[in-house]
Amino acid sequence: MKVIFEHQSHPSGLGFLTKEYIQTYFTSPFHFHDLYELIWIKKSYGKLYAGKKIVNFNGGEVYLFGPGFGHCFYNEKSFIESGETAHAIAIFFKEDFLGTGFFDNTEYVKVRELLNKAIHGVQVRHVDDQVYTLFSKMLQEKGMNELILFLQLLNHLSQLPAPQLEVMNETQSAMKLTNKDSARLEPVLKYVIENFKGDLDSKKAAELIYLNEAAFCRYFKRRMEQTFSQFVNHVRITHATSLLLTEEWDILRICYECGFKNLSYFNRQFREITGQSPKEYRRAFQGSNESLIMDNQAD
């Protein structure tokens, strides 16, 4: 198992690092690190597990995660089997890459506000071409030119209207799991997201981390602040929201495609998680590409 705490550092000792990922599919496990991460998903789609949220992600989206914010981009099987290549550009940076307290200056209050939001995870909505251009140019530059482009990018994002900087976890600050917990739960999260369309078994999940079923259920709820079945339902309902907007299938087919066996249970879970019925959700978001961000609900 890979170490779930990931440390990124620039070989020159600079406080920020630009990396390009071109892979068959995204391979990074559920992880967190001690840096900020600004990432453009240039091409890919799947499920993003971000803090205590599960969302659909697609190509063209931009996210900003603060230090300690647990996250992972999981590609769906359909993407992997398509033969397409996952492509992303990520910028990792220290809060003090320009010196301690630099962004506390009143002249840079907007950047400070952006960084504060990132502790909870931020999705940039309605990304404009200037953001993509600055990301791309950073790959081509080094030294002072790269730094200038990065500052332009931070400044541009910080000036966006508040609705375009959507906070993903209103009540969660830093990641609560320890390195050991994250590493231990990684195969369980992977098992669910890769197999949610079929039968999922808490006993099988327990075996993945060498616990009996009862001990596993207690451990999962204590660490993830939701039951295993709640997590499974969140993944399935997240997928359902995507199908409701991208396919013309009837509700029953979507129910089965997401791993549910009973339509009334699917409808009940959908309303509990989203606040709407599947039909209401489809009508409300018809013609919109917005991804749904869901709060964890208690039993």
Automatic annotation (TrEMBL):
The keyword Flavoprotein does not apply. Pfam families: HTH_18 (PF12833). InterPro entries: Homeodomain-like_sf, HTH_AraC, HTH_AraC-typ_CS, RmlC_Cupin_sf, Tscrpt_reg_AraC-type_HTH. The keyword Transcription applies. Residues 186-284 form the HTH araC/xylS-type domain. SUPFAM superfamilies: Homeodomain-like (SSF46689), RmlC-like cupins (SSF51182). This is AraC family transcriptional regulator. It comes from Parapedobacter defluvii.
